[in-house]
Amino acid sequence: MDMPSSSAAASAPAAPVSGTTVAITNFAFSPASLTVKVGTKVTWTNKDGDAHTVTSTGSGGPLNSPAMATNDTFSFTFTTPGTFNYLCTIHPFMTAVVTVTP
Ligand SMILES: [Cu+2]
């Protein structure tokens, strides 16, 4: 679990799929498909100038963020395995999925 602590320039858009962060940028979730193990805390960060939400598709889903302003974050810890589809309720064309494995 070595984490580079250097503050060296992060100019490359490195987005490891194994990470637990999702960026919201250019009206899209990145990565749009994230796989994590159960118990993982996933954090979304709104990098856009527009507000977005992280909201489970359909009813009764666990994801239900408030509208996130620029640079706001929203975190959720997935405690059950499954496939969790979500979208931005303000821009419903923004869809993505988190797959939680046992
Ligand atoms: Cu949005």
From TrEMBL:
Keywords assigned: Copper, Electron transport, Metal-binding, Periplasm, Transport
Localization of this protein: Periplasm
Coiled coil ranges: none
Source species, domain of life: Bacteria
SUPFAM superfamilies, alphabetized: Cupredoxins
Domain Blue (type 1) copper: 20-100
Pfam families in the cross-refs: Copper-bind
InterPro entries: Amicyanin/Pseudoazurin, BlueCu_1, Cupredoxin, ET_Amicyanin
Cofactors (names): Cu cation
Gene3D superfamilies listed in its UniProt record: Cupredoxins - blue copper proteins
Annotated protein name in UniProt: Plastocyanin/azurin family copper-binding protein
Organism in which the protein naturally occurs: Kutzneria chonburiensis
